[in-house]
Specification:
4% of the residues lie in helices and 45% in strands. The protein is mainly beta.
């Protein structure tokens, strides 16, 4: 979650505030006093064409659409919004949008096949407002092809416009009896295990918990989740990445100079249990903020971490060693601009090697790093605080970097292919 220059305290629905009184009474009352007395149920549904406070992005397998979530960060509306960007026209798709709880903190796209072999796409949206993850089924004709129809979203209400999603499409929540995902879920990752089991990992920032959930399709539609044993790792979890080469899960921490790590092992009863690994010790300078976003290299052997003490891109070797265990070793620290936030990777460097793009929220720019050369090759200046990043190989246009300009309520579009005429320049602003 970004931390703008003047950030209002998170404010939740009244029944959740009541549930969490006690040790945090003063904190919650301060937040309520700042935000005023209006209940979320009195607020209007957002009906603008764009997104307010765009935070996270994900690319459709067709590359024709980029999904984006707006966080409703100033709590001016009933909830946040998920929408799709048409990468051919750099405009929002107006036909299909979905409402999610406020203070959305991420956006994960999963692509799979259903029992009939048809492509199925689902978006998972963690939200801090009510400690939930919303599950959106992406609907469109000709799914997965460059000529597919505009997407819409089903969250138990059909593709019938905005409104609160059905419980069948929401994991967790702030009602008594709901699945407990920890306080303030901010990052999710999905893992397919031997035997066909599917596990969604949910990291929560305020209580440092990671909760793995075994997922299955609910009989009447939506998702059924069975919680596995949770882990408490650190009170500042910020990112979650699953390494395909080893199956190990890496969790960033904004309050500690460590990359946490764990794996899932058979529990002997037909299920799985998380087992902590040693993790990776990281640098510590004079600051008090540490890990933020993270992403894997194209070959899966390196983990790139946006880090804030010092401001740097960290390079961690996560490839399996001769013993089969991941090396989990910090191999490089490359200096960056102010308050690095999120990371995206694409093979657009010389000879097709990776360039790493890091949104620096505090210095209003994106730093382009060649990790093989161990240097910054360019800085893309922007009008304000970039946060979420995604890279789409757009049919007919080449690779484009989409950057959420959080506090300006727009998404910047930047060509990144080697040899592109306007490489590393903003060619469109979507709002």
């Amino acid at each position: 979650m970004p931390t703008p220059k003047q950030q209002p305290p998170p404010r939740r629905s009244p029944h959740l505030v009541a549930r969490r009184m006690g040790a945090t009474t003063a904190w919650w009352l301060a937040g309520l006093a700042f935000a005023g007395c209006t209940s979320e149920f009195d607020l209007p549904t957002y009906d603008g064409k764009g997104l307010r406070y765009p935070l996270a992005l994900a690319v459709d397998p067709s590359q024709r659409y980029v999904y984006a979530v707006g966080a409703n960060f100033d709590r001016a509306h009933h909830g946040g919004v998920v929408s799709a960007i048409d990468t051919k026209t750099d405009t929002y798709v107006q036909a299909g949008r979905a409402e999610v709880p406020s203070f959305a903190a991420g956006l994960l796209l999963d692509v799979d096949q259903d029992e009939k072999g048809a492509l199925r796409r689902r978006l998972y949206v963690p939200a801090r407002d009510d400690d939930s993850v919303t599950v959106l089924d992406v609907l469109s004709e000709g799914a997965g092809t460059p000529s597919e129809g505009p997407p819409s979203f089903d969250c138990g209400r059909g593709a019938a416009g905005m409104g609160t999603c059905a419980k069948s499409h929401r994991l967790g929540g702030d009602e008594e009896g709901d699945l407990n995902l920890g306080e303030d879920p901010v990052a999710v990752g999905l893992q397919r295990l031997p035997g066909g089991d599917v596990v969604l990992h949910v990291a929560a920032v305020s209580d440092g918990r990671v909760t793995p959930l075994a997922l299955s399709d609910a009989p009447a539609g939506g998702v059924k989740a069975t919680p596995l044993t949770s882990l408490t790792l650190g009170f500042g979890l910020s990112s979650l990445v699953i390494a395909d080469l080893s199956g190990r899960v890496y969790v960033g921490d904004s309050r500690a100079n460590r990359m946490h790590a764990y794996g899932l092992d058979p529990d002997g009863k037909g299920s799985w249990r998380p087992t902590s690994a040693a993790g990776v010790g990281l640098p510590r300078a004079t600051g008090s903020e540490f890990g933020r976003g993270a992403a894997l290299s194209s070959d899966g052997g390196r983990l790139y971490v946006a880090y804030r003490s010092p401001n740097a891109l960290l390079v961690i070797d996560v490839a399996p060693s001769a013993t089969g265990e991941p090396r989990d070793a910090l191999v490089d620290v490359i200096g960056l601009g102010g308050r690095p936030a999120q990371v995206a990777v694409a093979p657009v460097g010389p000879g097709g090697r990776d360039f790493v793009y890091v949104a620096c929220f505090g210095s209003d720019d994106i730093w382009v790093v060649d990790p093989e050369q161990r240097r910054v090759v360019e800085v893309i200046r922007l009008e304000h605080s970039p946060y979420g990043l995604a890279i789409a190989d757009v049919p007919g246009r080449g690779r484009m970097l989409y950057a959420a300009i959080f506090s300006r309520h727009r998404v910047a579009v930047i060509p990144i292919d080697e040899g592109a005429a306007e490489r590393h320049q903003v060619v469109a602003r979507i709002e």
